[in-house]
Amino acid sequence: MKKVVARGTEEGSQALETLLREKDLPYRVITNTLGPMTVTAYVPDEMLDDLLSRIKMTPGFAERNSLIEVSSPDFVISPVLEEMKGAKAPEQPIPDKPVIEQLMESAEPHTVLDANKVMLAAIAGVVALIGLFLNNVGIIIGAMLISPLLGPIYAFAVNTATGNSGKVLDCVRVIAALLLMVIVISFVTTFLLALVTDIPLTPEITSRLSANPIFVVMAFLLGFATIAALSKGIPEGVAGVAVAAALLPPAVVFGIALRLAPASAVAALTLTLQNIVGLILGGVTAVILLGVRPRGYFEQWKAKQFIRRVLWILVILAILIIILSFLVGWLSPAIIPGVAGSRIP
């Protein structure tokens, strides 16, 4: 059950209250006018999105000074609500769609590069580096659990669906900064370790020194499934493992390859780019199919134009990266023969 408090003009509040009190309206709600400009309604969670759409379309609630507040009461006791529980359900089922305001609020923190993200990315990169050098899958998975790479990709998808170009650019900057930091940390650490000891190219490392176009498809499916899971309330720590698995180890391996196997670094970078583009493309596709969009008609039109541009850019990048993957795969046997199992002094 959600409590919705709508504040608009006096005429708008009266019109909204009349609308909510219509007997044939498919809402189980009661309204209470606290003042000449305020209407309060109680509505089941699954009907919240439709109710907010109706409020936004009511004259007097599209003004700049209007306010819509949504909260979750601990409990509600009302004879009227008890009677409405037995009312006839609406003939048309209400689609189970995420509420856009909730998605935007949850995505907002991921558009800013803060100290916590930097610290978690640095720790995750070092832990993944250790796991790769020790050929220990458990340690690599542990690095994925603390990686903050999912948040910016999720925010990118949500802000693309709502047409917020400024926030999308912020997400790109955050993703680029985190990945660049992981690569630099991996390169510097590998460079220093190579000065004092022999470092093996373990199977966990060499398996990521090749690029295959199928990884773009895999990343697309992971991005789609991850964003869909988040919209259904799956915890970020669980859903984010898939994204971290696709991005974190390849980025770390690219940093390692820059020092230990420069001829293979292009393949590692290509694999990283494949996963970035595939994950973002899958995430954007997921929010579109989930029906995430602004409420206003003009905002929806702007969002559609922006989505088309973003999709074209992502598709073109995916095609270019697939071509690069074929080139790298064709050249790899000639430039890095027998790399698996080698040791670099």
Fold blueprint:
Elements: E1 2-7, H1 10-20, E2 31-35, E3 38-43, H2 48-57, E4 67-71, H3 79-84, H4 100-107, H5 115-134, H6 137-146, H7 150-161, H8 165-196, E5 199-200, H9 203-206, H10 214-231, H11 236-260, H12 265-289, H13 297-335, E6 343-344
Antiparallel strand pairs: 1-3, 1-4, 2-3, 5-6
Helix pairs in contact: 4-7, 5-6, 5-8, 5-11, 6-11, 7-8, 7-12, 8-11, 10-11, 10-12, 11-12, 12-13
Structure description:
There is one protein chain. It is built from 13 helices and six strands. The model is unreliable at 23-36, 88-96 and 333-345 (pLDDT under 50). Helix 4 crosses helix 7 and helix 11 (236-260) packs antiparallel against helix 12 (265-289). The chain has 345 residues and is an alpha+beta fold. The chain has two domains: 2-95, 2-Layer Sandwich (Alpha-Beta Plaits); 101-344, no CATH class. Helices cover 64% and strands 8% of the residues. The protein starts with a strand and ends with a strand.
Features:
two-stranded antiparallel ribbon; alpha+beta; elongated; 345 residues; disordered C terminus
The level of helicity is 55-70%
Strand order of the largest sheet: 2-3-1-4
Query: What series of H and E elements makes up the topology?
Result: EHEEHEHHHHHHEHHHHHE
Total discrete domains: 2
What is the gist of this entry?
By secondary structure, this protein is an alpha+beta fold.
